[in-house]
Amino acid sequence: MIQIKNLNKTYKSIQALKDVNLQVNKGELFAFLGPNGAGKTTFIRILTGLTKLSSGTVLLNGFDVGNSGIESRRQCGLVPQSINLDRELTVFENLNIHGRFFRMNKPKRIRKIEELLDYIEMGDRKKTLVKNLSGGMKRRLMIARALLHSPAILFLDEPTVGLDAGMRRKIWALLKKIQQQDTTIFLTTHYIEEAEFLANRVAFLDKGSIVVVDTPGNLIKQQGAWALDRLKEDDMETLYFNDRKEANDHIAVHKDSFTLRRVNLEDSFLALTGKKVK
Ligand SMILES: Nc1ncnc2c1ncn2[C@@H]1O[C@H](COP(=O)(O)OP(=O)(O)OP(=O)(O)O)[C@@H](O)[C@H]1O
Ligand SMILES: [Mg+2]
Q1: 2-218 sits in which CATH class?
Q2: Which of 66-70, 87-91, 99-103, 253-257 has the lowest mean pLDDT?
Q3: CB 238: neighbour CB atoms within 10 A?
Q4: CB of 16 closer than 6 A to ligand 1?
Q5: Is the Cβ atom of 14 under 6 angstroms away from ligand 1?
Q6: What is the value of pTM for the model shown?
Q7: pLDDT(179) > 70
Q8: How far does residue 44's CA lie from ligand 2's centre (Å)?
Q9: Taking a C-beta distance cutoff of 8 angstroms, is the pair 196, 266 a contact?
Q10: Is the distance from the beta carbon of residue 9 to the nearest atom of ligand 1 less than 6 Å?
Q11: Stretch(es) of the chain classified as CATH 3.40.50.300
């Protein structure tokens, strides 16, 4: 579905992506994790045709983003990092413009808009001006807009940033539902638990390079099952154990104030890059 070979992107003096190779399968939900400035947005912009690559090849459903023009654009729906809806227009009008851009005929456009508004539970908001929507509604509307022309791949750049925990979960459920309809989903996130919960596979991106690609389960397993955290001067020390009893024994022997918890993806990321994602 997505095939990337030796992708490089340079902005004047900054190399934003370095020799990225990646394959994402049809129907997969794939997450890109990485700290600020890692190159996540640059990557999504290249795949969705908004930014030119410097070298390498990107195929979407077989179409080369470098020279297939509109065909590769048609394969993707994009939910960008910042909200770019037209604030002065209604929910319906925002969707309608997008449908016209993709040359959907009127009956099809209207039918699909109705269907998607029901899908995102905003059927009663058709005539509401976008400026009067909550942040969570705006995000859901951007997802509906990205799905309007029935793309094979949905790209989301930090889809839940700035949302409260309840709305974040609502969007997670929506993304799972979209995936079940056979859409391939590619998202970027700072939220480790988002990637851990949603993704079939994740890639860690650091300074433009992919550090590792695997399932969340495999990455976590490599680190151990249990973690003990302890505050140490001005930093946190974490110890890893495969067995809960071993961890408890360590607490009993050392008598320090450790906190016991399950290992998570953040631990794997820290071990691989020495950095926190956030
Ligand atoms: N249009 C641009 N011109 C010059 N440099 C850019 C441009 N866009 C991005 N960069 C640089 O490329 C690097 C990657 O930026 P990018 O926005 O892709 O990172 P990101 O992983 O999405 O970060 P964030 O988590 O903050 O959204 C950064 O060093 C950034 O400053
Ligand atoms: Mg970004």
Answers
A1: alpha beta
A2: 66-70
A3: 18
A4: yes
A5: yes
A6: 0.91
A7: yes
A8: 9
A9: no
A10: no
A11: 2-218
